[in-house]
């Protein structure tokens, strides 16, 4: 009885086989051996670490909402103003035109940046362009409720924000668009954002702190504003020049 059950189970498995159960002929086997084997497009080491399918949604994050745990509290802090001789982030890099803030450093919320981006896209609808974002909202702002007593904790998460230093580029545009149209789009975006904003082009002078490097080198900027007076050497008295032997009392 057991033998019949095992044979029936074996027959069922053989019926599920995809490849034919009959052995290959000698001619087909020889042609298979002599046929050149095509090189695989992906190496085995790389293919071993590639997940072909996943039902879990990935959280890649964006420039308005990063992939950071909201329950982990963080300090809002202040924007780092590059006053020590750095002009990083004050010039147009990828695009042809940019929008730069020039009045004061501040924190800008993700909602304000999204409204400014939508204003630019609405004004440039139908144009061929590419918009670059130079900032990222990676600072979490936590707010306590109204009439909350002191000592009850930091508060719950409210929104994401970005630290924008003075004279930092926020948006850049490159494309087949007239300059006046881009000026108008950046004007609308600047009205949606807090602070004062200016229109800059690629090749404009960088800014260190609040000083534009237009005809000024970094050596001149680090040089003192006024000439220092020469150090005065105190006069040497004649008594100090006498030798100890001459001042010693006679024996």
TrEMBL record:
One of its GO terms (cellular component) is mitochondrial large ribosomal subunit. Gene3D superfamilies: Ribosomal protein L10e/L16. Keywords: Ribonucleoprotein, Ribosomal protein. Residues 222-251 are annotated as: Disordered. The keyword Ribonucleoprotein applies. PROSITE patterns: RIBOSOMAL_L16_2 (PS00701). Residues 238-251 have a biased composition (Low complexity). One of its GO terms (molecular function) is structural constituent of ribosome. GO terms for biological process: mitochondrial translation. Belongs to the universal ribosomal protein uL16 family. This is Ribosomal protein L10e/L16. It comes from Bombardia bombarda.
